[in-house]
Amino acid sequence: MESILADAFEAFNKYSGWIVWNLFLAFIPLILSFWLFLRPSKKRSLLWWCALITFIAFLPNAPYLLTDIIHLIEAIRAGYSIWITTLVFIPLHSLAIFIGWEAYVISLINQSHYLKKQGARKYIFASELITHALCAIGIFLGRFRRFNSWDLVTKPDILFVSTIGDLTAKKPLLVIAITWIILMILYWLTKQITLGTLLRIKLLLSKIDSQQELK
Known about the structure:
Elements: H1 2-16, H2 18-37, H3 46-58, H4 61-64, H5 69-77, H6 82-117, H7 124-143, H8 151-154, H9 156-167, H10 170-214
Helix pairs in contact: 1-6, 2-3, 2-6, 5-6, 6-7, 6-10, 7-10
């Protein structure tokens, strides 16, 4: 038993240690989306614009977790026991990927809600397409060029040159375009499920309140 636990701990550190950090990065835009887009106040102060820039910079970290499936594949191929694979690797990695992706979907739903409040409903779809495109570029830069969100501040010149180079080269542009399409399709599907689930929860809570009032 001790041997299994030791192997599990070693496996987690080697192949799953990224989970906590990557989820932390994914939750930054999610938390900011609630503050930016769901507050009653309509005032857009300097702090609001700074938070918006931070939101855009960190948002790719949420869908980026989709690419971390490569860590799961590496872990499965590492030759650990079936118990560690099924009880550690698959559940942890799948849950992290799901949570990261759902954080992305909810962030964009909040963004769309804000546009509705501002009377800009007709721009929602366009804003989603642009957001997916920016995130596709961010995912490529993170996965293949190993840039981070804070490199916008620490290495803006290198990041800019690298981005321009990738956007004008065929292979990187093709990868970014495919990523963009995948994000659009997955987002549309997950958005319907998420909104449907939220609606059911809202109706259920409303029903419970009504029953309590009758009592």
